[in-house]
Amino acid sequence: MSKSIEAMWKQGFVSEGELSAPKVNDLYNRKSQNIVDKLQNMFAVNIKAIVIGALVMLVVMSLIGAPWLGLYICVLLAPLVLIARKELTKSHNLSKGQSSLEYLESFDTWLKNSMDTYSKYYRFFYPLFYIGMVTQGLASNAGGKVMALLLKHYPTEYVLLEIPGYVWAVITVLFLLVVRYSEALYRLDLDIIYGRQFKKLEELITDMRALKAQ
To answer: Which segments cross the bilayer (predicted)?
Structure first.
């Protein structure tokens, strides 16, 4: 298009002659499709990024001598990819034989349900990811050397698996924090990546509801 939908929208309010219902509805229809298409494209790109990132992680971890951690992360990400593909398919299957407002409301409902589905998985993903990283760190040669230095300079009678009790205490506290704030971490990540588009979707639905109520 030679003009952006936003520019055409502003222009429609400059001249009252261009405020006919068909033109206003057409602008809303195009604006609605634009935001939905953009979000669906972003979701599709995100799926590809997860797959590529998992493979890169596997290669990098293998090169630095931690292939099992790389494989472990890939296993954790696999369900996420499956969930993402399933949810994206649901969004494409939403009925378009309805008004733009009804379609956007259906898309918004799907989006909220999809976010709930993801959040349930992330409650397990982040703690399991944390456990994998900590386990690899403690089991590595570098981790063993660090524990030995800690025991040398800060000795304690509480030692388990050659790891000081105070280190276990820190690990446990951090684990509980990760468990407690897993969903919050997911929501923050979501807001950083998609927050702007979500806000546009919400504002568009609000505008269309207000117009319909007139």
So the answer is: 39-60, 66-84, 121-139, 159-179
